[in-house]
Structures are given as structure tokens and as C-alpha cells.
Design goal:
By secondary structure, this protein is mainly alpha-helical. The chain is built from 19 helices and 2 strands. It has a two-stranded antiparallel sheet. This is O-antigen ligase domain-containing protein. Keywords: Membrane, Transmembrane, Transmembrane helix.
């Protein structure tokens, strides 16, 4: 019974932390209240377990969590933002602590995979519903800030909320497509949609990141000749696509050429430089971060809002630099350790999707909010928990083998 309640809790936690895919037809204050209460409960549930045995990903998650907590104090010291505002704004980022609770209750990996796939399918269904009703904003908000989704880069552009759970689900499908015998058509369909939907959303870093992961997955275990052939074929397709007169392709090419011509004047480069060098008002904030601004409410939040509206300097556009600006150097150290371990800690082939997800975060970390936004937070925690669970299992197995291989000595 307890296990069932835990599973139901984790299942509901996903949709709540995603704010019901930012549904516009549900009262916003109700969603925010439910989110705050749920996250507060999750934090208190996780608090007794934040100091497990230090191995694998435990230390980096502890470092990130500690830096987030300390940023509440920094927002008060550096910007005089009151603790109430900081607590409300910072609580969603403390979902990192769920990692420790999951390690304690040991939810089976198969159950988590099923939850992720269910929400991945839901994401796909809701995206196409929204796409077919672009004149009526049901989920999220238009990039243009208007009342309906408009055409950009040759397509009605809808960056559908909850991308993290979708990205993780398609990497699971990709992995199972080549390691499972059953339900191959199902996994193939999800894998194909995993490439189609980012193309329809016309988001360059998503398209490039997913295509690179797909290419790596299908070429990692084949001969050098076949690998070279596929790489040349892929390159040929990319070159050929640049000459195809299609609105989506032409929109992507024109945007890329425009940004490339801007060079150092590209707005994300300017924003990144500013948040790295000029944003923090003192040396302490340059080390420990500035905290999370209460957008448009506190003086700190008003300042960040003015930066966005007048200078077009958005924290969400600079990814890992935003993490540094809010949470400081220690949080960056935590992310670096995570990415290093994603390359050094081995995994069984059927779980390579964990590496793929972390590599996707790394690939998009300088241009998008994948590393810290609530659309990605819970899927990141799931990935690190599963990775840690497998790592500890391998570690315990190695210890058992080592113990059993010791010579048996009888004392006379």
C-alpha cells in the first residue's frame, strides 16, 4: 500500500511541477498554490535523506542544492529582496532535493520509465491539439507575447511547455528501439515524432541536439566503414536540405545566417557577457550568486524585468550563465561534475538514454533554460536518480564479486 501511494505521489508530482503543461484554462493562482504546497511537502519529505553515502551523483546534487538555498540569503544581502519573495521564487528550484527522497524509497526504474513514457505521449497529443488550435492559446504562451501563436521561420511556432519529459521519453524510445524485441513499431513511432516535433517547433538547438544524439546512437556500435558512410549521408542530407525551397528550412537557414553575421553583437552573446561580468553588484554575488528575482515585484525583480524589456537581456536565453548569475560558482561546479560523470560512469546499453539526456542538456546549456527551468527540472532529477540507482547496483555487485573471490583461509 505504501509503495502504491509513493508511485501515485511521484506520478502526480510530474504534472504539478510542470504546472499542468502551463494550461491557460486552469486558474493560475490555484496552480501556483498547489505547486507551492506540493513542493514544500516534497522538500520536507526529502530533508532527512540529503546526506546519503557520498558516491556517484550525490555530491554534485548536494552542491547545487546548497547553492540554491544560500542564494536566498544572497538576494537579501545584494538586492534587499525580502526572504518571503525569495522563498516563493526559489522553492521550485529545490525540487533537486527529490533526488534524495527517491534514493531512499527506491522507486523501481521500470515504474519511472512508464511514468515518463505516459507523460511523453501526453505531451505529443497536447502539442498537436495546440498546433491545430493555434489561434486559441491553451498551453504556454506565444513567443511574440500576443494572444495567439504566430508564424515564425515558416511555421506556426509553438514551444510547448514540458520539453524535458518529452526529450527524456524520446531518448527512452530511441534506446528501446535498438535493445528491445517487443513493441518495435511503438518505439519507432515515438522516435520519429521525437525528431518531427522539434522541427515543427523550429528550434535550432533542439533540432541539432536531437539529431546529433540520434546519429551517435545509430553509429556507435557499427564498423568504421558504415559509420563513415552514414556520416557522409547525413552531411549530404544537410547540404541538400539547404537548397530545398521549404518555408521551415528557409526560415531556419535565414535565422542562422542572420545570427552568424551579428557575431559578438548577437543578443545572446551580449546578454551572456552582461550576466557574467556586470550583473552582480558585489564580489560576494559573483561567487555565491544573486538569488532568484521576483519578476516585476521586488526591486531586484523590477531591475531584471527592465533588463529584459529594454535591453532584451533575458536570463532564460543564457542557460548555464543564468545558473551562475542566480546560484553562483558552486552550482556550476555541481553541473560540471554531473557532466564529467556522464562520460565516465558506465551504463548498460539499455540505459544509454540517461547519458543522452545529460548530453542534450550540455549541448543546449548556453542557449536555453534546459539546465534549470521547471519544464526540465523533474526529468533531470529522474535521470540522475536512475543513473545513481544503477551505479550503486553495479558498485554493490563489484564488491560482492570481490568478497567472493577472496581466498578462504582456515585458521588452525
Amino acid at each position: 500500500m505504501i509503495r502504491l501511494l509513493q508511485i501515485i505521489y511521484i506520478f502526480l508530482l510530474v504534472i504539478i511541477t510542470l504546472k499542468f503543461f502551463d494550461a491557460r484554462f486552469i486558474d493560475k493562482s490555484l496552480i501556483n498554490s498547489l505547486l507551492f504546497v506540493t513542493l514544500t511537502g516534497t522538500i520536507f519529505l526529502s530533508l532527512p535523506f540529503v546526506f546519503p553515502r557520498n558516491s556517484g551523483f550525490v555530491l554534485p546534487v548536494q552542491l547545487i542544492t546548497a547553492s540554491i538555498l544560500f542564494s536566498i540569503i544572497m538576494a537579501n544581502i545584494s538586492w534587499e529582496q525580502n526572504f518571503k519573495d525569495s522563498l516563493i521564487e526559489t522553492t521550485p528550484y529545490l525540487l533537486w532535493m527529490l533526488f534524495f527522497y527517491l534514493l531512499y524509497i527506491r522507486i523501481p526504474i521500470r515504474i519511472l520509465e512508464n511514468i515518463i513514457i505516459i507523460y511523453g505521449i501526453l505531451y505529443i497529443v497536447l502539442y498537436f491539439i495546440q498546433l491545430s488550435n493555434s489561434h486559441n492559446v491553451l498551453f504556454g504562451k506565444p513567443i511574440s507575447g500576443g494572444d495567439e501563436f504566430t508564424e515564425q521561420r515558416g511555421m506556426t511556432r509553438i514551444i510547448f511547455p514540458g520539453g524535458g519529459i518529452f526529450i527524456l521519453s524520446i531518448f527512452i524510445a530511441l534506446n528501446k528501439l535498438t535493445t528491445k524485441v517487443k513493441n518495435l513499431w511503438f518505439w519507432l513511432l515515438i522516435t520519429c515524432l521525437g525528431l518531427l516535433i522539434p522541427i515543427l517547433q523550429v528550434t535550432r538547438q533542439f533540432i541539432a541536439g536531437i539529431m546529433l544524439i540520434y546519429l551517435y546512437h545509430f553509429t556507435q556500435s557499427i564498423s568504421l566503414f558504415k559509420k563513415t558512410f552514414l556520416l557522409l549521408l547525413f552531411g549530404g542530407i544537410v547540404i541538400t536540405a539547404s537548397y530545398v525551397e521549404h518555408p521551415i528550412l528557409q526560415g531556419l537557414i535565414e535565422t542562422q545566417e542572420r545570427d552568424a553575421n551579428l557575431g559578438e553583437n548577437y543578443i545572446r552573446v551580449l546578454a551572456g557577457n552582461y550576466f557574467m561580468t556586470d550583473f552582480s553588484p558585489n564580489t560576494l554575488s559573483k561567487i555565491f550568486g544573486n538569488g532568484v528575482p521576483n519578476w516585476g515585484i521586488s526591486d531586484y525583480g523590477i531591475f531584471v524585468e527592465i533588463l529584459a524589456h529594454e535591453q532584451e537581456y533575458y536570463l532564460s536565453d543564457v542557460g548555464i550563465i543564468a545558473v551562475y548569475a542566480m546560484f553562483g560558482i558552486i552550482s556550476i561546479l555541481g553541473y560540471i561534475i554531473i557532466w564529467i560523470k556522464s562520460f565516465t560512469i558506465p551504463l548498460p546499453k539499455e540505459y544509454y538514454y540517461l547519458k543522452y539526456y545529460l548530453w542534450f542538456l550540455l549541448f543546449t546549456s548556453f542557449t536555453w533554460f534546459t539546465v534549470y527551468h521547471y519544464h526540465y527540472m523533474i526529468s533531470t532529477v529522474f535521470v540522475l536518480y536512475i543513473y545513481q540507482h544503477l551505479y550503486e547496483g553495479q558498485e554493490n555487485y563489484a564488491k560482492t564479486i570481490a568478497e567472493e573471490s577472496k581466498p578462504f583461509i582456515v585458521n588452525n
